[in-house]
User: Fold these one by one.
Assistant:
Number 1:
Amino acid sequence: MTVDGGEVVDGKVHLHVTLAGEDIVVAGHLHRATVRDFFVRAYVSPLRTER
């Protein structure tokens, strides 16, 4: 999963992501994710810090 951007709207995290698996790539808004019998690694990095 690659986070392509996002923001916090009304206190809720809104992520734009790219997901890839066997023979498929999907991009769009992540509403929820369920991990069953496969491995997932997700990285989330801040775009900027408030000073």
Note: The radius of gyration is 13 Å.
Number 2:
Amino acid sequence: MKIEQKKQEKNAGFTLVEVLVVIGIASTIIGILSALLSHFYRGFAKGEESGILLQESGMFLATLRNDLINAALGKNSQKEQWSKVLQSTQDTLSFSVYCDTDGNVEPVIYLIDGKSVKRLQGSKKSKTLINGNLKSLNWRVHSEEFKGPALGTKQIWIDLDLTLAGKEKPGLKAKPLRIRTKMFPTRLIKQMNG
């Protein structure tokens, strides 16, 4: 009986090989989990940044489209003065917008400020539409007078080429978002052709 008891006491501990195997398996599992969590975090961060780019571009385009729909000549302006009302430079796009039923207009300016785009209307406080994510923005005013059956009809539009890129974060940069479109100042076109 004493011999059996001594054998059981001798086999009660772990051997060095068993301890090393358990440490190896635990290290492998921890390494795999940390790699998966790191990969998940990067994917989440890129998705979040892409969402911010889409949100800012959507707000910018919706605001600009709404303003261009309401771009108008003042009540005392002549049709031929449209090019003084709607102007673009490398850093600004400016025009007047219809602001009340009396035909009054108010100036609106879109301003590129570094990597941001701001909107200024009259004496109101500026509103930032794109905040630090602008890579490039080009806008040009174009006009055309139709020939043939629609002789004398004028068309005005703005060519817009917008590229947004996320803020510089190592290993977490989303793909740049590029949007090219044409926008039409419908009220101004109607005034010119009316």
Note: The chain has one domain: 40-193.
Number 3:
Amino acid sequence: MDERYAPPRRAPGHPGLTALAVLLTLALIGFLLARSTVFVLRSVQVEGDVTRYTPQQIADIAGVSMYQSIFSINEGQLRQAVESNRYLRFEGMQIVYPDGLILRVSERQPSATVTYLGVMFVLDDEGRVLDQYSADSETLDVPVVTGLKIKRLAIGEELQTEMQWQTQAVQKVLAVLARSELTGRAVELNAENSDNLYLMTTDGLKIELGDVENMETKISIAQEVLRQIDSPAFLAEVEQREAQAKQEAAQQRARAVANGTMTQEEADEEARLAEQEDGLQFDLMGAKLDVSSAQVADFVPAQ
């Protein structure tokens, strides 16, 4: 039997698959090159009302550096880095491909003070301690928080109280106040009683808030009442009522003289004394404004 040697057969080739593999390899190489040369940080823009730091200082605080990979930027890490600075609040970020980053940052502002063990601590609207001064330092134009049972106060940390509800109440009221028209008018926030939170204003008005529920509505009602009280129309109404009261008093004196219960001399003397008295006044000192129901405002004039 004649046996001849036959070489092994090669598998049939697939030119299309080979070309695809080459293209994928080239694409991967191109992507890696682009990642290392194109998608790198070349521009950092800082948005927000911050006066304490320059944009470059904020970028340094955030820990971002030029020519780092865009894909290495992590929002959680940025937030943690920015808020490690007690004056800054991280508001968000946006990557602008291929090489830009927008940082949104705001500056924490003094919203209240707390005096503890002879030290005045400055709080922002989240109850975070921004600074501390001696108690006899010049006061800030922000409310003083009273009635607290302090557990811990440290710069850069949130206020801690023995009763957690006090911390939560202070944070809630300060956050709402910061967005309201009462910001510059409130001089004291008392949080001694969970069901009887109240504010004192620069003109001596006590605003009774009740508990912490529906605080936005309560503050809104209070500021609307004060807006009306401060309006020229309200003052005009007070003057009109004063004139009406004087007219009614004069008519009563005239009737008294007519029916013989008062002489003309007595009527004239009473009129003279009435002119010397202060007219009808609307004084907020010692008055109360109860908005605790979050539905209506109950105004109680000073006694």
Note: The chain has two domains: 43-107, 109-303.
